[in-house]
Amino acid sequence: MKGSLTQSMSWLHTWCGLLLGWMLFAIFLTGTLAVFDKEINWWMQPELSDQALSPAAAANVAQRWLAERHPDETNWNISLPTARAPDLAVSVGERRRGGGGVTHLDPLSGATVEPRETIGGNFFFHFHYTLHLPRTLGVWVVGFAAMAMLVALISGIIIHKKIFKEFFTFRPAKGQRSWLDAHNASAVLLLPFHLMITYTGLAIFFLLYMPAAVNALYDGDRQAYFRDAQSGRAAEQAPRGEGRGSKAVSAPAAPLLPLSEIVGRAEAHYGQGMIGSLAVSNPGRANAQVTARPVLGNRIELSKGEGMVFDGVSGKLIQAPEPSRTSQLTQRVMAGLHFAQFGGYPMRWLYFICGLISCAMIGTGLVLYAVKQRKQAKANAQFLRVVESLNVAVVAGLLLACITLLWANRLLPAELAARQNWELRLFFGVWALSWLHAWLRKPLSAWREQLLAAALLALALPALDLWSAQDTLDVMRLSLLASVASMGLLLGWTVWKIPTVIAARNARSARLDRPAAGASS
Amino acid sequence: MNGSALFASLLLTYAGMLGFCLGKERHWKQLVNPHVPTGLRRLCAPFGGLLLGLAIYASCQVWPGGMAVVGWFGLISLAGFALLLLLPYAPRLALSLPLLGGLVWAAAALT
Predict the structure, then answer these.
(1) Among B17, B31, B69, B84, which would you mutate to test the A interface (most chain A Cβ atoms within 10 Å of its Cβ)?
(2) pTM of the complete model
């Protein structure tokens, strides 16, 4: 009975892991990059510069600009400079931050700045949970992949016979043995991370994946559920909704308090530099209200949408943030664990490196399948070719496409119309070509050439920036370049290591290892 | 952010994982001088556990409350993974790293 359980779990692990592994690698890699989404955004818009102005002073600059150009609008939105996104941006109307119509301001002079249009680091973030499909479909597909990941993790634990005995075992340059060691060790040592990130990823979209309870209790009225789940939010929304529309015009004129005042009061609650954005309704009227929203990250809980509402004329606090109720808190803590907005840069780097090792775990699993199949005489050669070319295209090709995106951001003319679309075309174009290349070349050559191309592009990126855009380089942009170059070194080392590994193995035993040589990257 | 405490938690998690590693016969033979009495091997795992316990205290100096636990788990995993990579390529360094790191930490703390 034991044997049959292991066998069936092994079958499950293989097929779940292989068929969804390609998708999972793309999800994990883009998710890992999305840990630094704002930093990538910042690097991708070199026209913006960090003026190190305090959020309070920046709020006044934005207020002056808005009062001059848009005195009659009913809603102003201001996104303040923060540690991770040191730019000042404003928009009017109901648009949310990041949507169209955002104007960037120089925080010192208040002059408008026109940065290049770019898909930015946000692309990795959106790709991570939608795979660039239509949103709902994408979320479902990614959810399906995440379920497969959980199945693969659990079945992997069951079929791993020596979890504790081989806890620290890695024997490099031994063909299939090494691939299995690397796959096992990266899975076992980071098991808490793998389980946590997969499970919490599923928990984010609980309403989409498991709507039955809310539908039954609230008769399908999602808004009613949200109102119940968080009483504070509902109260906050009510006065704002009332203030909009025709009534707003009828309210008498009254001067808006300097917004620095509001920022100061909100900072007293949330902490210095913790206010990310302001939303002003009915500016210049007696019923003006200002909502100050914190940047995420002073606790694990994902506090999106939370804020303090102030009276815009008197500065009186109207609505303080309320702690979430237990059920809501549970879900938000899980979402927060996934979004990794807490704990500052050390925590961000922990998540980033853990994510990279997760990618390595998935990648080694994919290669392991090909290495095993190649040894079997009865393997289906056509299917193996599909697997090997997809392995190269998904692992090496996606790395290449990501670094291409960074290059495209720099090389495409800044004033190009529909620039984001060109960035997307280049990203997906290079990715598609990488698959074609992998299909036409022998697996080993395809691996080496694509990894080498990615390594060279990553290593050359700092040179490009130092040559063409050195006056835009600040600490954040330099750190990004340094990180990209380190990745380039890592990839280059891998490429450089391939021939040595193969030579050593061939010398040792030609009989066993010739079939496995193809994927030793 | 408390850099000294972060470095200390990283060192302690690494040393703790090294303790668990030395508790296994295969790695004991690989890393430790054969003259050292093998009875000491049994002490390695409990000692490693103790160091991991200290690491959570250090982690609490870096992050508040729950975040410290998340960071502690992450550091343990990464320290274990680093140890895994060092073992075949630089076994001596793998063994002496806690000592070297401890000296660096002490030097930085004193200055």
Answers:
(1) B84
(2) 0.91
